[in-house]
């Protein structure tokens, strides 16, 4: 089994050569040199409107089409006509829910999680507009660690109790941006569809938020059998753009057009119906740098690259979790699963509670004072999840989050642990 060439991966990100330790990657990763080069080249050499017949417009149109192909490959979607670009996952999901207004009945139910509100809020608003109901798939105590009340996760049994004949949509995260835990999407979708069919639900669609998942694992919208999925390229080593996958059948049967009225017939089966106005073309072209970079890490094979990334990330995760577990008597509580494993990514959250509690804000301030390590605290917009943790926390103070990706190194983890040792002394 070949391992990841971390030095090679780091060389693709100029920011990493400064020695600054980037450990807030779940907020946004560093961007590839090649993405910046492409953006600059687009702006300097092909910066015209798309769709005209003159040669430069033909070139810019092709570049934006290549961006859609890059997203299709990363999603493993069937067609480029299933991907829409936007500036954020939050905006794309809000647009998606708007477009579904006409296909949700007043007595129907939408199931959401307490994870990042991007895949919760739009469905709550849709339910309000339609007089439908939302139900919460709550994270519950993990049986492996009954002594840590913050060791929680989304569990399938909990979800299955929420499904009824009125279920219309299930919206969940493939990976939690707080807990770091990965949901077995394929198995969950099979279980949702089987239970819904058994109960006679009219139509159940699944919308999966892959924003915290895509930097660490391979997406497979076809294998998963999901209707909608979203990820943000700025967390997958590219520029600030996001992409929405919409299954072709859902595009035509479940969604109305948000585009100008006179475009409606032309966009009936096109992602542009969810994209009122063009995306930033140079940014879409910049996104095409991501698949070749990833493939190269697996000697030309994307699957191999992600397998190497996942194995390397486990070597970062294990010592960090082991250290935090060793500080349990000091009041450290990991928020999420306490042990490494391929069902967990190196997004590690914790709190310091008890007689010598330390606010998350104060832990992060000690890192900030060092000036060379970037981590963060808060609820990270998983407001419902963080406010449901019990014993309750100050939701604004939230958790301390250290989020690593494949370009982080073991030496960096050791540095982080050294700072934590000082803080917890
Ligand atoms: C799990 C998850 N979903 C959604 C989002 C929102 O993504 P965007 O900033 O592209 O709207 C984030 C951002 O942190 C996230 O972590």
UniProtKB/TrEMBL annotation:
<dbReference type="InterPro" id="IPR000192">
    <property type="entry name" value="Aminotrans_V_dom"/>
</dbReference>
<dbReference type="InterPro" id="IPR015424">
    <property type="entry name" value="PyrdxlP-dep_Trfase"/>
</dbReference>
<feature type="domain" description="Aminotransferase class V">
    <location>
        <begin position="22"/>
        <end position="414"/>
    </location>
</feature>
<protein>
    <recommendedName>
        <fullName>Aminotransferase class V domain-containing protein</fullName>
    </recommendedName>
</protein>
<dbReference type="InterPro" id="IPR015422">
    <property type="entry name" value="PyrdxlP-dep_Trfase_small"/>
</dbReference>
<dbReference type="InterPro" id="IPR015421">
    <property type="entry name" value="PyrdxlP-dep_Trfase_major"/>
</dbReference>
<dbReference type="Pfam" id="PF00266">
    <property type="entry name" value="Aminotran_5"/>
</dbReference>
């Amino acid at each position: 089994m070949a391992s990841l060439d971390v030095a090679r991966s780091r060389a693709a990100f100029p920011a990493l050569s400064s020695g600054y330790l980037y450990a807030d990657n779940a907020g946004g990763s560093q961007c590839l040199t090649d993405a910046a080069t492409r953006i600059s080249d687009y702006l300097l050499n092909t910066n015209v409107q798309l769709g005209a017949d003159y040669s430069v417009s033909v070139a810019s149109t092709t570049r934006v089409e290549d961006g859609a192909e890059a997203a299709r490959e990363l999603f493993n979607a069937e067609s480029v006509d299933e991907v829409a670009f936007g500036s954020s996952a939050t905006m794309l999901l809000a647009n998606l829910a708007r477009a579904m207004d006409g296909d949700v009945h007043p007595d129907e139910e939408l199931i959401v999680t307490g994870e990042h509100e991007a895949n919760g809020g739009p469905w709550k608003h849709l339910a309000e507009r339609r007089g439908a109901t939302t139900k919460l798939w709550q994270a519950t105590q993990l049986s492996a660690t009954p002594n840590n009340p913050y060791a929680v996760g989304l569990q399938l049994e909990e979800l299955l109790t929420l499904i009824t004949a009125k279920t219309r949509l299930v919206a969940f995260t493939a990976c939690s941006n707080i807990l770091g835990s990965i949901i077995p999407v394929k198995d969950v979708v099979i279980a949702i569809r089987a239970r819904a069919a058994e109960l006679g639900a009219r139509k159940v669609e699944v919308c999966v938020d892959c924003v915290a998942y895509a930097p660490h694992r391979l997406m497979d919208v076809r294998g998963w059998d999901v209707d909608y999925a979203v990820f943000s390229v700025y967390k997958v080593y590219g520029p600030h753009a996001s992409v929405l996958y919409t299954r072709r059948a859902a595009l035509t049967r479940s969604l109305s057009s948000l585009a100008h009225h006179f475009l409606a017939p032309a966009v009936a089966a096109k992602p542009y119906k969810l994209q009122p106005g063009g995306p930033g073309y140079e940014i879409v072209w910049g996104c095409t740098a991501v698949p070749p970079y990833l493939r190269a890490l697996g000697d030309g094979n994307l699957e191999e690259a992600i397998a190497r990334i996942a194995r390397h990330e486990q070597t970062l995760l294990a010592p960090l979790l082991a250290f935090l577990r060793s500080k349990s008597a000091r009041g450290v509580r990991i928020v999420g699963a306490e042990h490494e494993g391929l069902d967990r990514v190196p997004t590690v959250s914790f709190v310091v509670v008890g007689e010598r509690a330390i606010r998350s804000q104060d832990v992060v301030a000690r890192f900030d004072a060092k000036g060379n390590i970037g981590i963060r605290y808060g609820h990270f917009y998983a407001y419902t999840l963080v406010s449901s943790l019990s014993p309750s926390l100050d939701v604004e103070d939230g958790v301390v989050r250290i989020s690593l990706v494949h370009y982080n190194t073991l030496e960096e983890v050791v540095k982080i642990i050294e700072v934590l040792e000082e803080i917890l002394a």
